[in-house]
Specification:
Blueprint lengths: L4 H10 L20 H6 L7 H17 L22 E4 L13 H4 E6 L2 E5 L4
Antiparallel strand pairs: 1-2, 2-3
């Protein structure tokens, strides 16, 4: 797949194929820190807004297509009552600078997972 990455994304853009983003690096403690960097590489083919949408709401939309295989009983990829509450607050504007995602420990001010705040560096 690595050798075909350029072609795959070029074709996805050419034919307007809805594309999700994910990585198996999540399961490698040594590689987890590179996930943000890998995400930012998508800016070669997509706008920053498209990259962020791909990794969030488009992933959720495509996962929902798995119907009974979808392990989540609530809605994903949206901020609304009853949806699964995963949320990031970025210190800066990733629409202007997607590279903020390269350093999540520095640039993610709030991390909420399953409705619980795991990090909050914002002043009250």
């Amino acid at each position: 797949m690595i050798a075909g990455t350029l072609t795959a994304y070029d074709l996805a853009r050419k034919y307007n194929i809805k594309t999700a983003w994910g990585s198996d690096m999540l399961f490698s403690p040594q590689m987890t820190a590179r996930q943000g960097t890998m995400l930012t590489h998508l800016s070669r083919w997509y706008t920053n807004a498209q990259v962020l949408q791909m990794a969030t709401s488009t992933n959720a939309e495509l996962l929902a297509l798995s119907n009974l295989r979808n392990p989540y009983p609530g809605r994903l990829g949206v901020l609304e009552a009853g949806a699964f509450a995963d949320m990031l607050v970025v210190d800066g504007n990733p629409l202007e600078n997607i590279n903020l995602m390269n350093e999540p420990e520095k640039n993610l001010a709030v991390i909420m997972k399953d409705g619980r705040i795991h990090k909050n560096t914002l002043k009250s």
